[in-house]
Structure formats: structure tokens, C-alpha cells
Amino acid sequence: MRIPMNEIWTEKYRPKALSEVVGQKHVTERLEAYVRTGNMPHLLFTGPAGTGKTTCALALAKELYSDSWKGNFMELNASDERGIDVVRGKIKEFARTAPLGGADFKIIFMDEADALTTDAQAALRRTMEKYSRICRFVLSCNYASKIIDPIQSRCAVFRFKPLTQEDVKGFLEKLVAAEGVKIVPEAVEGLVHVSRGDMRRAVNSLQVAASMGKLIDMDTIYQTVGIANPEEVKNMLETAISGNFVAARNMLDEIMIGYGLSGQDIIKQIHGSFFELGISDSDKVRLMDKTGEIEFRIIEGSNERIQLEALLAYLVMVGGNNR
What we know:
Layout: H1 9-12, H2 25-37, E1 42-46, H3 53-65, E2 73-77, H4 84-96, E3 106-111, H5 118-130, E4 135-141, H6 149-152, E5 155-159, H7 165-179, H8 185-195, H9 199-210, H10 218-225, H11 230-241, H12 245-259, H13 263-273, H14 281-299, H15 304-321
Parallel strand pairs: 1-4, 1-5, 2-3, 3-4
Helix pairs in contact: 2-3, 4-5, 7-8, 7-9, 8-9, 8-10, 9-10, 11-12, 11-13, 11-15, 12-15, 13-14, 14-15
């Protein structure tokens, strides 16, 4: 029976309190201290995608303001509204108005702040300074190096780390039980592996797989997350190293067509599979160097099929030197 999908699970199961946030205890403990004191500085959240930055900002606002949090919290995505006009207009208008419900200050949360232009960041630093008495800023970004130093020096920096496999697995098992999803244990492990510490990717992939309305196995996971079976990729590489270029090329065709992968998708999986090949470390170094060159050519617009076949041909030559 197909599972009804009335809500996006990443929103439905988003933690409502800081204590419920998974895998970022070193962050949530400091934020809970701000809640207890009722005061906080400007904050800068930095780290990989899907690790809880937005969730922590929302949970912080809800615990600080309770029922009046929506009136005292403004969320912007800087990748959509990244120009200086937004800082001078929308942000400044919200920052200069008094907090609601007797709160001491309001919060402006800027997601993907590393997408702000340099001019917008320069204008933002002055706004942060001018209205700091009644407004606090929480900036979220993937790369702190893209935030100008004057803003970084005005913020308390919180570094989010990729979630551990145990954290992701525990949360997925909670969702599986709550939604009644039929899934084999190996598929849960597969989701944990392909998520690479990104909880959002893991949950979204689980929901897509569950929407198919059948028992979720590893093949379903591979189709859902858009990657090839790692064993098939490894077999293709081993076939090339053994000297059978035509067979390896046919396997490449089957993988790319069967899973609908682009050249950039498959080159990433090839890169990860090199460590499992039974070749010397010096050969692995040469293959890494060649793979980086091939990926660069694909990104720059070269024909991906020609480049991938060139990589297979290089594997054949590496294997020939060892025979």
C-alpha cells in the first residue's frame, strides 16, 4: 500500500527544541546557555549542508520567545536575496522596529549568508552594529571563509560537523517506526552510507523510496539517491585493469544508462572505488591524479563519454604495467 505523503518529512520531524537536535551537542549546549540567560550575541553557524544549522536557529527562537517567536524572528535566504538593496530595505526595516511580547531583542536569520555579495556584507556589518540593542543576527553558511572578517569578528562562531553514522541511523529508524515504512536493514545502512553525514539528504531519500509503496531494498536506495551500485562500479574498474577495455566500456554504458547518471556523477563514484582495488599505492596515486584531470575536463565542457573512456583506457594501461 502506498504511503500518503501529505508533508515533507524533513519539516514534519524537524526538532522543535534544542535538546532534540541530533549530533550537535557541542553546539546546542552553548545555545541552551543563551536561552537560560535570555541574552545572546550575533551568531555565525558554519558547516556542511544538512547538519542542523537552520534547525538550531528555529529551535533557539522558539525557546527564547515561546508563542511570540514568529513575530520576533525573520528568516531570509541570502542566495535569493543577496544584494545590497535587501540589506538596506527589508533587513533594516525589520531590525529597527521594536520586539514584540516584551522581548529584549528580535532575531534575523540569514541562511546561506556566504552567497551575499561583498557590498551587501559591508552594508550588513553596519546594520548589525547600529541595531544590536534590539536585534541579533544569526548567519548560516557552508564556508566561513566567504564571510568578510568584520562580520566574523562581530559573531560567536559555531562550527557544525557532519553527523555520525550512528546519529543518522538512529533518526532514520525513528522515522521508519513512526511512518510504518517497510525497509530491509541493509537499505537503512545504505541510506546512512550515501548520506555522508547529511541528515536532510537521508530523510528526503527515505521519503522518496517510501512513496513507491513497496519493500525498500538496496536497489531502491540506489535508484532513489541517484548513484550506481558500488559493486558494479568496482567490477567495471577491475575489468579495465585486467585488460578487457571493451567489456569495461560496455559496463560503463549499462551503469550510466541504467541509473541515469551524468559524467560528473560517475566520476565521483569511480574516485571512491579506487581505494578498494587490489593495486599498489603508487598506482592509486597515478589514478587519483588522472581522475582529477578527467573531472576538470568534464566540468570545463569536454565530452563526458570520451573522457570517461579515456580514464578506462588509462586503467587498462596501469593494469598492463603490472602484468
